[in-house]
Amino acid sequence: MPAGWLCTLRAVRILSIESSCDESAAAVLDSDRGLLAHVVFSQIELHRIYGGVVPELASRDHVQRLLPLVRDVLVQAGTDRDGLDGVAYTAGPGLVGALLTGAALARSLAFAWNLPAVGVHHLEGHLLAPLLEPHPPPFPHLALLVSGGHTMLIEVRAIGAYRLLGQTRDDAAGEAFDKTAKLLGLPYPGGPALSRLAAQGREDAFHFPRPMLDRPGLEFSFSGLKTAVLHAVRGRELTDELRADVARGVEAAIVDALCAKALRALEQTGLEILTVSGGVGANRRLREELVRAVSRRGGSVYFPRLEFCTDNAAMIAVAGLARLQAGQHEPLSIRAHARWALDGLPPVAA
Predict the structure, then answer these.
(1) What is the CATH number of the domain that holds 74?
(2) Is the pLDDT of residue 1 over 50?
């Protein structure tokens, strides 16, 4: 069943493409029937040997993967070009070469099929991912967006109406997970590996700093966490037990910081609804702590399902469909932005 925000007088169906980093993805979303199909190909194995994403390799792999994925998703959705009303793609922010591969394909398909194309802000996709659920969050609400490259608190008044309340001054929460994992010698991707290991660690073995919690405001800082871990393990043998204890301490520090600032933002804005998006939003401890803390103050927390926390085309379809319905689309030029401010997006009429 489609979510209530999708229902319109006339059914609208959109194909979407995501290629901002190391996931190639495509999806088909229908305003009446909801998400018809989505497919994702992850490049984890391609980049594992290097311990991180290699931009040129990511771009080349997108070139090979995207068109077959588009064919697959159209078949799974039971539709073709004649059944589509538009094509959406991630226009930024992200790796510019990777973005250009998806943008060029999407714009070319839209031109060949005589359809409007919609360039979508990647972070808007993450913000709207909870709308894919059977019971989407109401507006207005507070959004905590936590990923490998971003940690933000955003007031979401409506689709297209965003106010940035606070963000990290340096490393994002996901970066803190990944850098600590690399320091501990954990396999790539480091963040999920560290979270799994943390479940085996002792709760009070390490207490790492929670930066900026003693200061007013809603900004974050995680750059000092790696340094604190480095000092904690220097000169010590990295046994499995030590790794697990450090992982537990790092996870606790990050989760405490995110929860404290999210609660502070709810208090300052007077909002009662919190949404959590982005790859770090899949962290089990973060989910449990936020639900517990927000419930105590009478509020509610909404999460996208785990498959929609990481990069995917379904979330791009949500943002693209909303903007297509508002009459917004791209000229013939292809655009891709490595950096792109979220608060500069045009509004979407109700």
Answers:
(1) 3.30.420.40
(2) no
